[in-house]
Design goal:
Blueprint lengths: L22 H6 L13 H13 L6 H14 L3 H11 L4 H13 L3 H12 L3 H14 L4 H12 L3 H10 L4 E2 L5 E2 L2 H12 L15 H10 L2
Antiparallel strand pairs: 1-2
GO molecular function: ADP binding
Organism: Trifolium medium
Protein name: Resistance protein
């Protein structure tokens, strides 16, 4: 508000670049020209993580599959590529594989902290809707998600979903499906896992079949 309240504050020819995760911020300040930054494609992502992990032009054949796993897991997100690539530096292939297995079970704390910034700004019910989607409804048609969540949240649920889209936590693709980045999905699931790391039965949501079976067996 104090630095860039309105476009007319700036002289003719001025160029102001604003970066934000919250699209509503741009709307409130009359920003008309916007550009959504895309993730790195697989080729660029591979080169980026190769330099972070190996720091050399030489590519040892045994590391190709490891780096491809990092690229697939990060899904073009530079933060994920940088954190995981740096962590793999100076490690053997087996150590790299073990580290990636761990990442797939429990997200890296640095990545989790950065991605959770947008989540932390949400209202209580908005957080709840996001966790529902991250844990259970990724890939569902928007109409189906609205139908299911309406039972619990009522009509306000549509406003909550709009907020999640504005804050870039979820997207609605051209096919009308609710999608979100894999690392954002993992962030949401980790928030729920931390509700009770050792006892799935005390968590607010379950998505892994082994946890669901375990809880059902214990509650016969």
């Amino acid at each position: 508000e104090a630095i860039a309240g309105r476009p007319e504050w700036f002289g003719l020819g001025s160029r102001v670049i604003i970066t934000t995760r919250d699209k509503s911020l741009l709307t409130r300040h009359g920003v008309e020209l916007t550009y959504e930054v895309k993730g790195l494609d697989d080729e660029d992502a591979f080169e980026f993580v190769r330099w972070k992990a190996l720091k050399t032009d030489e590519l040892f054949s045994g590391y190709v599959h490891v780096l491809e796993r990092v690229v697939a897991y990060a899904s073009g997100l530079p933060l994920g590529l940088e954190v995981m690539g740096s962590h793999l530096f100076n490690k053997t292939i087996e150590q790299c594989k073990d580290a990636l297995d761990r990442y797939e079970r429990i997200p890296d704390k640095k990545i989790q902290t950065v991605l959770q910034l947008s989540f932390d700004t949400l209202e209580v019910e908005e957080k709840s809707v996001f966790l529902d989607i991250a844990c259970c409804f990724k890939g569902y048609k928007l109409t189906r998600v609205e139908q299911i969540l309406h039972v619990h949240y009522g009509d306000i649920m549509k406003d909550h979903i709009n907020v999640l889209v504005e804050k870039s936590l979820i997207k609605i693709n051209e096919s009308g499906q609710v999608t979100l980045h894999d690392l954002v999905e993992d962030m949401g699931k980790e928030i729920v896992r931390q509700e009770s790391p050792e006892d799935p039965g005390k968590r607010s949501r379950l998505w892994a079949s082994k946890d669901i079976i375990e809880v059902l067996k214990e509650n016969k």
